[in-house]
Amino acid sequence: RACLEALFLTDPAVDRDRLLDLKGERAAGTCEWILTNQLYKSWFYSDSCLLWLSGGPGAGKTMLSIFLVEKLTTRLPWNTILLQYFCKNEDDKRNTAVAVLRGLIFQLLRYQPLLYGHILPTFALQKESLFADASFDSLWKIFETMTCDPILGTIYCVLDGLDECHKESLKVLLNRFRRHFSPTVDEASTRQLNLIVTCRGYPDFIAESLSRFSRLRLDSQAKDEVNQDVNRFIDAKVDALAAEKCYSEKLRLHVLDVFKRRAEGTFLWIGIVAEELRRYNRIEVENALDLFPSGLETLYGRTLLQIEHKQRSIASKILRWVVLAIRPLTVSELGAVLGVQPGKFSTKEEVVKDHVASCGLLLKIQHGDQVGLIHQSAKEYLLRKIKDPKPDLDFFRVKEGPGHLEIAMTCLDYLQNGALADGPLTDEDVDEGRDSPRIKNNPLLLYAALHWQEHAKLLSASEAI
């Protein structure tokens, strides 16, 4: 039990359910084409194989992963096991190679307790340090030994969003996958892991590492099937909007036409715009559609330009902190960063939420009080390296060096100017987190104490604190 508790970071099944809550249910009829695709069928009936599903941002890769998990759960043969994992760039519990391995090993142990024999001897020696980032090699050896144990049958694994892992960490993991699925003659008989990876082909080393394996390109090889799914998704979203907002048939058809002309095959664009249109009544919808141009980057830029000038300085700071934070920040932590004070008739939290809302569709508040970006593509847009020709848009571009310096200095100032007046953090403060009375009085204390040094390390060599 101690080993399992130390191993645990997140439950991938819960992560999947949260993704469904965020994205909404799958539109009827979508994703089903994958089950008859020849590459998928070859993967499913293989003894050990890696299949890479690739596509651009917002192309429906995560929903396809969720669909595959649901279908595999109901059709797996006897003596087989299903593993799942959903990476998330902005969550430090789901964005490293070690986090991935911990999630997969956690599922293996819950499925087959006899596999504890592969981990307990090492855990007895290393204790919690076995699960540190520096212990990747030890964890990989344990994972590989488990997946080759004859007590298990074929292991099916769906690994979503691998490109959202930290680059250096991801390189190491991909290298191990490449070696695992390229066994020697003697090793081949022990391999029983069937892995599906869904991610983009960026950074470039992903394509290089996976080049020898089967690849299904959603934007070319499965273009027709994906386009049909896009149209089904548009139909479902517009029909739901029309029913909720009581559109006339003429208005429904107009909205449907605009979606099909502007979506450019991007599920994310459809989901974002459909959600935004819920804010407008029937009279406003036709003009509101002009606020949503084709393409994700154009949509993100239009959103930034709609922020009122008097709000842009605070909005820029919020976006900078959300983009560069080591883990998702809470509403109260952002309030401490901004130095927010309660209004005459508003609490601090309400004031912060209003500031977050000024950033439009780029930000969302999830899991009650965590502030996050709408999608990984929004983070990449804000972090783009090339100066924007439009000064108003370049104002919001996040420069990593100065940004990490600002965060590190803010955290240190926060710690030095009273947050540590009662002494250093205790184990109780860390264990109880935001429920600790001390953390409630100093909302940024936990983040500042645990992560300022990580921001300092990310500074370029020419910058110092």
From TrEMBL:
Transmembrane segments: none annotated. Residues 308-385 form the GPI inositol-deacylase winged helix domain. Keywords: Repeat. Coiled coil: none annotated. Residues 29-200 form the Nephrocystin 3-like N-terminal domain. Pfam families: NPHP3_N, WHD_GPIID. InterPro entries: GPIID_WHD, NPHP3-like_N, P-loop_NTPase. This is NACHT domain-containing protein. It comes from Periconia macrospinosa. The lineage of its organism: Eukaryota, Fungi, Dikarya, Ascomycota, Pezizomycotina.
